[in-house]
Amino acid sequence: MLPQIIVASICCLLTLYGVFKKNRIFFNLGYFIFGLVVVFSELGFFAQNQQSIHLATAFLWMIQSSLTLPNKIPYDGSKLAKSAAIKIYVCLALINVFGVYIVRVTDVPNVAQYFHILLAVLPLVGMYFILNNKVEITSR
């Protein structure tokens, strides 16, 4: 479990760096890799004990990884881009709030809940930046 905690810590640091630098690529990369860590961890738990909660959790974090697949599409500040970003950030927050719950009711180490709390709060910061036009608008 220690290697997963180290990788999860690095992912959270990447996401934090993305927030502070207002860099969507690092922000998404942290969530993407963290999602993959959770997916492979939960699939391992599922292989050990065949409990369906682990399979469901893996699929939920596959959704997180899909939503945050890193790309270099420029943010143009349009209503469509803002709307999509807000919806994605709400999904990220909800997924990770659920992560806190999962950690508390399963045999996952308790330290994981702190990663999920952080990753549930950071999208709210991103939404604040977007709604208040504090994200740099880029063009192709």
Keywords:
140 residues, mainly alpha, 5 helices, elongated
Structure report:
By secondary structure, the chain is mainly α. 78% of the residues lie in helices and 0% in strands.
How would you sum up this structure in a few lines?
This protein has helices spanning 2-20, 24-49, 52-67, 79-105, 111-131.
Supply the helix-strand structural class.
mainly alpha
Low-confidence stretches: none
Task: Give the terminus-to-terminus CA distance.
Answer: 42 Å
The number of strands is: 0
Write the layout of secondary structure elements.
Elements: H1 2-20, H2 24-49, H3 52-67, H4 79-105, H5 111-131
